[in-house]
Automatic annotation (TrEMBL):
Pfam families: BACK (PF07707), BTB (PF00651). Residues 28-92 form the BTB domain. PROSITE patterns: BTB (PS50097). Transmembrane segments: none annotated. SUPFAM superfamilies: POZ domain (SSF54695). InterPro entries: BACK (IPR011705), BTB-POZ/Galectin-3-binding (IPR051481), BTB/POZ_dom (IPR000210), SKP1/BTB/POZ_sf (IPR011333). This is 18481_t:CDS:1.
Length: 507
């Protein structure tokens, strides 16, 4: 331990010595122009420090870029680089060069904090950003990426993920928009994606969605599990397309669009349109919400969807993609695949089969139609009964959180309807209850317990004695199963699906 202490002490002294370079104005040999042509400022710096700490400045000061004037300074022009001089001055320059602080008086203590952070990183090799606001951290992240300061980008990304999760949840679209522009921020993008999948309606309603990269929208629509009604997916795609098509806007009357406008819009959204599950939209919703925009996509596709719902057989010219799993709790195909396996094999007591069941989404033998979704704080028996009674076999899935903030999933399959008749005759049907964790894209500890006869009570799965999941008490879930005795957790979200066996070619 003494050796570690001595090393840290020595490193701190070394950093302190390097910081003294900032007081040596006679050693400055770089002038940096920042801003745009209308408003720009110039700052002085040390080339040896900039070369060492930033790949961008190393290239900028190379023989190919750097030009040394008669007065002895290298000149670096950052005008037009997307770094406003105010941000460079307040968020970068005051962090790097303390000498300029003599000529400015900043009333805000946050500027001093930022100044110490970046100054310490460039010259002293240590960081202190804990007291910065999240917006300031994101500004630092963007600027550090532009200047190719990779280690600082990595540090800020880790710090945001570790300390700012609640803010990322609240402002997720803004963070994602920035993170997608920085190739090194893969973990931050992954975290934001988890929030998008949990709150997709919030995401597609955000202003940032309209400016998301085309490839990112493609990746989102390629998902077979997405917690949106398909008509909402279509509306989001059209809004994105209009926003990214010159000459038209979201406030336009569609009838005013020219042929060129429509052709450009079509070219922008053609790949996105091909990923929408039109054939699984409710017919009335399709006619009302999609019909008026048939000029944007092939009219024959509209005719095919109408025929699909009105004729038993006809010749398809379009591929019919499988019904998307409309869930904000389930994330990956492993979950519906495993649940489908348990439904398809009523004789098995196996929690997890030896071989992965149903290796692709379209091989899953059941469709899951969302009939009810709510947050735990909104869970009410009357509304649940209105939407979940007389639906046939159902699958319920519940996301919970305990006192340790750990998240888990509980649920159950019921082979017959919840209904007044079945409740009065004490018929609960068979099925199973289950649970698992989902962490870091891995399905953990799945368990399943068979139920020969569910208790006939509403909002209750299990036999009421040996194994049950009880969600009749508002936000509180009670469970007794798989070694858990009188487990109590807080319901974050609940979904109920009508389970329909897919038609097969042989009938």
């Amino acid at each position: 331990m003494p050796e570690i202490y001595d090393t840290v002490k020595s490193f701190k002294q070394l950093s302190s010595d390097f910081l003294k370079i900032l007081d040596q104005e006679e050693t400055f040999d770089v002038i940096i122009h920042v801003g745009d042509e209308a408003t720009s400022e110039s700052f002085k710096a040390h080339s040896i420090i900039l070369r060492t700490r930033s790949e961008y400045f190393r290239a900028a000061l190379s023989a190919a870029w750097g030009k040394k004037k008669v007065d002895g300074y290298f000149v670096i022009d950052l005008r037009g680089m997307g770094i406003p001089h105010t941000i460079f001055e307040h968020v970068l320059f005051n962090l790097i060069f303390c000498w300029r602080m003599r000529f400015y008086s900043f009333p805000s203590s946050s500027i001093n904090i930022i100044y110490l952070s970046f100054q310490s990183y460039i010259y002293g090799a240590y960081l202190k950003v804990e007291k910065l606001g999240v917006s300031e951290k994101l500004q630092l992240l963007v600027a550090a990426d532009i200047l190719m300061m990779d280690s600082f980008v990595d540090y800020l990304e880790s710090e945001l993920i570790r300390d700012e999760k609640s803010w990322i949840n609240e402002k997720n679209s803004e963070v994602l928009f920035i993170a997608l522009q920085i190739s090194r921020c893969k973990e931050l993008v992954s975290l934001c994606n988890d929030v998008v999948l949990r709150h997709p309606k919030v995401f597609v309603s955000s202003k940032e969605f309209l400016f998301m990269p085309h490839d990112y929208i493609i990746g989102l629509l390629e998902r077979d599990i997405l917690g949106l009604d398909e008509v909402d997916v279509f509306a989001a795609v059209i809004m994105w397309g209009i926003n990214n098509t010159p000459g038209i806007s979201l406030t336009d009357d569609f009838s005013t669009w020219t042929t060129d406008n429509i052709t450009t819009l079509q070219s922008n959204v053609i790949q996105l349109i091909s990923l929408i599950r039109f054939f699984h939209m409710p017919p009335e919703d399709f006619k009302k919400k999609v019909g008026p925009l048939t000029r944007v996509f092939a009219p024959e596709l509209y005719d095919q969807v109408i025929e699909y719902h009105s004729k038993a057989q006809f010749q398809f010219i379009y591929d019919i993609l499988p019904l998307r799993f409309n869930s904000t709790i389930i994330k990956e195909k492993e979950e519906p695949a495993l649940i489908s396996y348990w439904i398809s094999h009523p004789e098995t007591e196996c929690d997890l089969p030896e071989h992965p069941p149903f290796t692709s989404f379209d091989k899953i033998p059941y469709d899951f139609h969302l009939i009810f979704r709510c947050h735990g704080s909104e869970l009410a028996e009357a509304k649940w009964r209105d939407l979940c009674y007389n639906q046939g076999p159902t699958m319920t899935i519940i996301r919970t959180k305990n006192q340790n903030e750990d998240e888990a999933v509980f649920g159950g399959y019921k082979s017959i309807s919840w209904s007044t008749e079945n409740r009065n005759t004490h018929i609960g049907g068979d099925g199973f209850i289950f649970g698992y964790l989902w962490q870091q894209r891995k399905l953990l500890l799945p368990w399943m317990l068979r139920v020969n006869n569910h208790l006939d009570a509403d909002m209750f799965l299990g036999d009421g004695v040996e194994a049950f999941i009880d969600f009749r008490h508002g936000e509180k879930l009670l469970a007794h199963a798989n070694g858990f005795e009188d487990l109590e957790e807080t319901i974050e979200e609940l979904e109920v699906f009508r389970v329909v066996k897919k038609a097969t070619d042989d009938g």
